[in-house]
Amino acid sequence: MLRPVETQSREIKKLDGLWSFCTDADDCGIAQQWWRQPLPQSRAIAVPGSYNDQFADAEIRNYVGNVWYQLNVRIPKGWEHQRIVLRFDAVTHYGKVWVNDHAVMEHQGGYTPFEADISHLAAAGESIRITVCVNNELSWQTIPPGVVTRDETGKRQQSYFHDFFNYAGIHRSVMLYTTPKTFVQDITVTTEIANDLSRATLSWRVEANGEVRVELRDAGQHIVAYGEGAKGELQIAAPRLWQPGEGYLYELRVIAQHQGERDDYPLRVGIRSVAVKGEQFLINHKPFYFTGFGRHEDADLRGKGFDNVLMVHDHALMSWIGANSYRTSHYPYAEEMLDWADEHGIVVIDETAAVGFNLSLGIGFDSCEKPKALYSEEGVNDETQRAHLKAIQELIARDKNHPSVVMWSIANEPDTRPEGARDYFAPLAQATRELDPTRPITCVNVMFCDVETDTITDLFDVVCLNRYYGWYVQSGDLAKAEKVLEKELLAWQEKLHRPIIMTEYGVDTLVGLHSVYSDMWSEEYQCAWLEMYHRVFDRVSAVVGEQVWNFADFATSQGIMRVGGNRKGIFTRDRRPKSAAFILQKRWTGMTFGEKPQQGEKS
Prior knowledge:
Blueprint: E1 12-14, E2 17-23, E3 43-47, H1 58-61, E4 66-74, E5 83-88, E6 91-92, E7 94-99, E8 102-108, E9 114-117, E10 127-135, E11 146-150, E12 156-160, E13 169-170, E14 174-179, E15 184-193, E16 199-208, E17 211-217, E18 223-228, E19 231-237, E20 250-258, E21 261-269, E22 274-277, E23 280-283, E24 286-287, E25 290-294, H2 308-321, E26 325-327, H3 335-344, E27 347-351, H4 382-399, E28 405-412, H5 421-435, E29 441-444, E30 463-466, H6 478-496, E31 500-504, H7 523-539, E32 543-549, H8 579-590
Parallel strand pairs: 25-26, 25-32, 26-27, 27-28, 28-29, 30-31, 31-32
Antiparallel strand pairs: 1-14, 2-3, 2-4, 4-10, 5-9, 5-14, 6-13, 7-8, 7-10, 11-12, 15-16, 16-19, 17-18, 17-20, 20-21, 22-23, 23-24
Helix pairs in contact: 4-5, 6-7, 7-8
């Protein structure tokens, strides 16, 4: 799915700002057809943004069920004879949309865009009413999963099995955009590079309802290659490569024409290659070592709402600390984030929202019953698998052309020990490869699914591990934790001979808590713990990356394990550095960029 852009043939009208908002605790909005009238007892709410924290109202913060948004907007006079599209970048977790009295679209899945052609409902110069019913309920058949129950008063309660707060609402931009009636619908670009880097091949495939021409332009807008047709190849001599730390981008200008009508779509393209060879992860035929974080889209007041200020500041902190990569844990991030990564040479592991496929983590089952088996008719079943496949399809359709995205992660921490796990994941792994044969794939492994008990990691190209030795187990005993960690990493190396990335490792740390004994929860313990892990990484040859959990403290559901949220951040939730930030900065900025330290090097 192409992201809307403004060109000579296309215009955008952003609908971000204040909308009308109300909850629907009595479930009467659909029956009373609230889309036909102004919302009852509404209040103003900011879009984009989670609704949970915008009001000083506990009922709204923990609300489960339908909420409603509404906005009146005037169509620009100059949009006559244009195709007019209404687009939502993300509505969490389900949204149904009406324009005036007409239902125009609905979408399940909280982190990918959806849109509809509303040309027949939107006359130039006239006003339209946009109404959205948003629902945050999760089930075993949604991605991510959850269970809704009712308490003794009949009030809904949402149980969920992921360890971050279930923020909901219109989380990203809403817009109207235009195209001509002849228009570019979709573009797929792949690149290959000669072993000596002297030349490159760019392959394109375009969906459009007109004759297609493509022009590849460099950063100075000079045409370096061109072609015609819905698909083809361009040869580029002496290409300037997109690479970690240097996000050089070409522009592939795609032109569709028919009977005098023309649409131009400029797609930014990075020329680079990605491959796995033995125990190495290669970018542009060169071994790459990941440094960075698992992150969350999470901030005070905004919740998961996209914010440009936060994006700029977070990336400034990542640059300061020496990070070259991150994982979009545990859902697709805003497209603006990937654009930034493209421009700045940041490497991204792109993940679906499939998190919480687990009965053993002790998360979310206080007010609901566990299914008898995880992979079963009452748990993760065929309907779940179809929803999961749809999530993978939508992720790849949206992000396939981003050079920063070097690997797809189809799930985070599923329990891969039980019967049924391989039957569930094998078709999804195969489908991901068929959708995009150009990128490696992974599924992030949970701590207790080790070499002996895991049943699916061999289906994937890269071993991604989340490990917390010295925190959840071997608590406070770094010497014992170091031995256990190294033993397990060597076992994975010996079994699969594939690259290993530690996609999560971290400890909860209360800023300002200090201890001469480096006790747990103190800033000193976080520093010593990270240094221990790094010693092990440097000794195990198959380890090709380290992504600390987490970039910043983040909100979770309430519980005795979480003191005001998850405190594993290297930065606080308001982005103040803990002592460990300086440990990481010294290690990562002391490395040759993108290269692993050799054993014995100081770090």
